[in-house]
Amino acid sequence: MQRFQSTLKKELSFHGAGVHGARPVTLVIHPAPVDHGIVFTRIDTAGERHSFPRDTAHAGPAELCTTLGAGDVRIETIEHLMAAVAACGLDNLAIEIDGPEVPILDGSSAPYMQAFATAGIEEQDAPRRYIRIVKPIRVEAGAAYAEFLPADTTRFDISIAFDSPAIGEQHIAFELTRDYFAREIAPARTFGFMKDVERLRAVGLAQGATLENSVVIGLDGKVMNEDGLMAADGFVRHKALDAVGDTALLGRPFIGLFRSCRGGHALNAAAVKALLAQPDHYEITEKFI
């Protein structure tokens, strides 16, 4: 595991549209000094700046995406970017965006992983601090649950079950490392059902969803995309990607196991908040095994 804090070696820019609002945006990621943390800043049309650290204190409602903000000023769909940030062990970044939603790009974390690799990662002269899970904590919603458990590394164990022949029951478990995430998790794209499109668009969602940035399951229960899935279990891999991004709202990397069954953004967020509300269930440490 990583001993020192890190940032990028150079600035990166991304241009695209949001999957829900379809508004074109520019996202710029700047290197940042030691102990700066990951801070998002939304710049509105008048040039006013609104900054939000990536933590649960600044998180908004989390149903179809993960959000930071306050009141009407929000930055939505941060999870794919935050998953790549977490997987690459980046601690200090200043992220600026000129709209309300992070660009969806190809619907995965792969573009961010590739860009981070090209920019290079710089080790900084300060120890990295971890949240080490020392006692289990669990949240439930019907048959679904999410929990943090003690472990010696950062691990994820994700199970899903959908009443769809294209998905069914899927499971994946892994230790979070940069190489594994880049190869096995990052390319898994977001997914949805054609039967839900009309309902979502009627309330202003999924306006920017296309077959180029989303895996779509048709009314016949089959994947509509000509290029198919990155793997047969690509659906659970994307849910794992979301979990990596959502748990980054702990505000620090964690040492432990995050496990969920039939979960999603809302349950992931609830688990993060439940853990932080119980300080005796974790410790802040610079030491790792």
From TrEMBL:
Co-factor requirement: Zn(2+)
Pathway(s) where this gene product acts: Glycolipid biosynthesis; lipid IV(A) biosynthesis; lipid IV(A) from (3R)-3-hydroxytetradecanoyl-[acyl-carrier-protein] and UDP-N-acetyl-alpha-D-glucosamine: step 2/6
Catalytic activity of the protein: a UDP-3-O-[(3R)-3-hydroxyacyl]-N-acetyl-alpha-D-glucosamine + H2O = a UDP-3-O-[(3R)-3-hydroxyacyl]-alpha-D-glucosamine + acetate
GO cellular component assignments: membrane
Positions of Zn(2+) binding: H80, H238, D242
Family that this chain belongs to: Belongs to the LpxC family.
Domain of life: Bacteria
Gene3D superfamilies registered for this protein in UniProt: lpxc deacetylase, domain 1, lpxc deacetylase, domain 2
A Pfam family hit: LpxC
GO biological process: lipid A biosynthetic process
GO molecular function: metal ion binding; UDP-3-O-acyl-N-acetylglucosamine deacetylase activity
Active site: H265
Name of the protein this chain belongs to: UDP-3-O-acyl-N-acetylglucosamine deacetylase
Annotated EC: 3.5.1.108
Keyword Zinc: yes
Function field: Catalyzes the hydrolysis of UDP-3-O-myristoyl-N-acetylglucosamine to form UDP-3-O-myristoylglucosamine and acetate, the committed step in lipid A biosynthesis.
InterPro entries linked to this entry: Ribosomal_Su5_D2-typ_SF, UDP-acyl_GlcNac_deAcase, UDP-acyl_GlcNac_deAcase_C, UDP-acyl_N-AcGlcN_deAcase_N
UniProt xrefs under SUPFAM superfamilies: Ribosomal protein S5 domain 2-like
Record key words, sorted: Hydrolase, Lipid A biosynthesis, Lipid biosynthesis, Lipid metabolism, Metal-binding, Zinc
Gene name for this UniProt entry: lpxC
